[in-house]
Automatic annotation (TrEMBL):
Residues 1-13 are annotated as: Disordered. It is found in: Cytoplasm. This is Uroporphyrinogen decarboxylase. Substrate binds at R37, Q38, A39, G40, R41, D86, Y161, S216, H330. One of its GO terms (molecular function) is uroporphyrinogen decarboxylase activity. It comes from Actinomadura nitritigenes. Residues 32-41, 149-165 form the Uroporphyrinogen decarboxylase (URO-D) domain. HAMAP family: URO_D.
Length: 355
């Protein structure tokens, strides 16, 4: 059913969607736009649905996954849906004792800090996440010509939650292992890359037409260390996914100095946060890649004239890229006004139509 995976066949409406065209650096009728974290706390209908249902439980119920993924599609004219789940869902599915605490994030009961701890990271089998398969299949049917983006956490970000036991400002234990116990680090990162590959394959097999690897916290690593300790693992993830022919997006926060390496790791699209203007990002990323980004999510709290001016600036700089997918530089902030997001989508479409 994945016509995006068969570029040689008759392309069909899905493959001709502006989002997939831009990812493939082909001409587009308008610049496509979607928002990281477009489903979730900015939407009152989300809060109502989630009342009394813990986050991880909602991620294991196909009916809720489908409904929450579709909520932003009804409000905004975005060009892609992002699967409702979380980067720690595959870890939970293989039996890691963890929870997502509201206002905090993922918390791990028994952090992994030695070779014995690695044993908890068994491989992920498709049968561990039947609700993901069911929800993706349902969504692909509902979405029709609109692409569904599958996703997984990047290995550094997953390692950091597992080693620290929760969110961390300085990643000191994570880096202590990366610098001090490189063999243990590589074994941990290898297992996490396998889990990410398996989780992405489940989503692609069920019909996802693109994937994004969220290595959100990898921006804390210096380029040399990224090349030595992260890139080999992320590179393997992208290499394993290449065979399916779906665009691969690679995103992290504060990764200005890593953009070139993140492209080298094998992504088709490099996600850029708001700190690096897109025309500068073009210079940092090797040719043959599209870019995604990068309006500061906090700009949405400024008067509309400012939002408009800044969005048009992102579009103008994005025109220097071989392909541009408009997005925020990180996820939608919880108190964002959904009406501003709706207006922003219309602005991006209208202002880019002549491209
Ligand atoms: O983008 C989407 O709309 C799809 C859903 C999605 C969620 N998490 C749902 C979620 C995606 C793509 C993620 C990815 C994710 N999860 C990342 C990478 C993206 C990023 O923001 O950098 C990270 C680092 C996580 C880990 C995580 N899960 C955090 C930091 C939090 C926030 C904790 C909080 O309450 O402040 C979560 C919980 C989470 N994941 C929520 C949602 C909608 C909020 C939980 C709730 O509504 O109860």
């Amino acid at each position: 059913p994945n016509d995006a995976a068969n570029p040689s066949d008759d392309p069909g409406p899905l493959a001709e969607s502006p989002f997939l065209l831009a990812c493939r650096r082909r001409p587009v009728p308008h610049t496509p736009v979607w928002f990281m974290r477009q489903a979730g706390r900015a939407l009152p209908e989300y809060l109502r649905l989630r009342e009394g249902v813990p986050m991880l439980e909602s991620c294991a119920r196909p009916d809720m996954i489908v409904e929450i993924t579709m909520q932003p599609m009804r409000r905004y004219g975005v060009d892609a849906a992002i699967f409702f789940s979380d980067i720690v869902v595959p870890l939970k599915a293989i039996g890691i004792d963890l929870d997502i605490k509201p206002g905090v994030g993922p918390v791990i009961a028994d952090p992994i800090r030695d070779a014995a701890g690695l044993e908890a990271l068994r491989p992920l089998e498709p049968g561990d996440v039947p609700y993901v398969t069911e929800a993706v299949q349902g969504l692909v049917g509902e979405l029709g010509a609109t692409p569904l983006i599958g996703f997984a956490g990047g290995p550094f970000t997953l390692a950091s939650y597992l080693i620290e036991g929760g969110p961390s400002k300085n990643q000191e234990r994570t880096k202590a292992m990366m610098y001090g116990e490189p063999e243990l680090w590589d074994r941990l990162m290898g297992r996490l890359a396998d889990i990410t590959i398996a989780f992405l394959k489940v989503q692609i097999a069920a019909g996802a037409s693109a994937i994004q690897v969220f290595d959100s916290w990898v921006g804390s690593v210096a380029p040399e260390d990224y090349r030595a300790s992260v890139l080999p693992h992320t590179g393997r993830i992208f290499a394993e996914i290449e065979q399916f022919g779906v665009p691969r997006i690679h995103f992290g926060v504060g990764t200005g100095e890593l953009l070139g390496l993140m492209g080298e790791a094998g992504a088709d699209v490099v996600g850029v946060d708001w700190r690096v203007p897109l025309d500068e990002a073009v210079r940092r990323v090797e040719p043959g890649k599209a870019l995604q980004g990068n309006l500061d999510p906090a700009v949405l709290f400024a008067p509309w004239e400012t939002v408009e001016r800044r969005a048009l600036d992102v579009l103008a700089r994005g025109r220097t890229a071989e392909g541009h997918v408009f997005n925020l530089g990180h996820g939608v902030l919880p108190s964002t006004n959904p009406d501003v997001l709706a207006r922003l989508v219309d602005l991006v479409h209208e202002a880019s139509t002549a491209r």
